[in-house]
What we know:
69% of the residues lie in helices and 0% in strands. It has helices at 3-18, 46-58, 62-75, 80-92, 96-105, 110-130, 146-159, 164-177, 185-199, 203-219, 223-236, 241-253, 257-267, 273-289, 293-306, 319-330, 335-350, 356-368. It starts with a helix and ends with a helix. Keywords: Signal. It comes from Nannocystis pusilla.
Amino acid sequence: MPRASLLCALLLACAHQAAPADSAPPTAPAPAEVDPCAAAPVPGDSTKALARADVLLRCGDDAGALAVRFALLRRDYGSTARAYALAMLAHESGQGPEFDATVADLPLTAAARAVYRLARDVSNYLDAVARLSEEAGKPGEAGVDGSILARDVAAALAVAGEDPYALSLALRFTAVHDNDPRERAAPICRDRADPLLSRLRDREGAAVLAGACGRIAFHSGEPIDGRRRFARALELSPRDHAAAIAWAAAELAAGNLREALRLYELAAGAPSPRLRYAAFLGLGVTHARRHERDAAEAAYRSAAAVRGLDTAAPDRLPPELSFNLGALLADTNDPAARTEARGLLRAYVADPRADDRRRLRARILLRELGD
């Protein structure tokens, strides 16, 4: 072989040996992270659309969640369930009045319209009653016209008598409006709700109705029946956080602190900020009664954070939160905590929404704090 040819052969062999046997493929770029809170079209599938509304709630986008609910209601004008969900969501986000006109323009069925109106009015009524003390919390004293509510109850039941959402709202109003729920509300659960529950295919609607009758049972002095009904509601719909909160409040009132704690912790994961606030507030009260001071303080501060508030600005806090946290911090020897307690209790005393009995207690605590 000529010398030049041999040299070329050797060079080619060396080059072949130097090349890697299996060259690694180029690294693919990492997929861009999907932002679940970013704007996106409303899914065509109703189940996926409802899941999208829940995601938007968790993102704090109440308006976006409402838009999804409106889209669903436009697709199905006869859906009383969606009308109910829309009214409750609008109320929880504080945007109810802004959407009444929009709902009025939708070509809803009479049943859906009646349930929407009833849900809105009952929610407003219950909120008003909750702000009053037990002595003042009677129909007609909550700033709401009981006759208007009675009309809405009658209208909803007339056109949607077999609808669990309309019936549950009627029960909630009846229970608060009557001095003794055993007179009218409890028989409605027995004679109308129970037969309806036995044949309902709508699990969410059945859960709402079972939870409503659970409240009635506790208020009627039937805790065993109340627990059975609430357990059924959560079995049907594990994400029925409103039922969990109502059950927790009933157990708290009965002194069953361990069960109240379990249920409030369950509800603390609710997508609705309004329900999370109620859950954390209940957790604070429950921990305080269990003499778990640090846990109670943490729960109260979480309740403020859910509302986007800071305990450093006590005049902006809801009155029940400023009183509970102030009373908790007053019972300590820490100077900083006692200083914060003074600010919280002063804010409560000055709040026109304050309960007279608690206002007196707050003034006594302020005197004890040297104020």
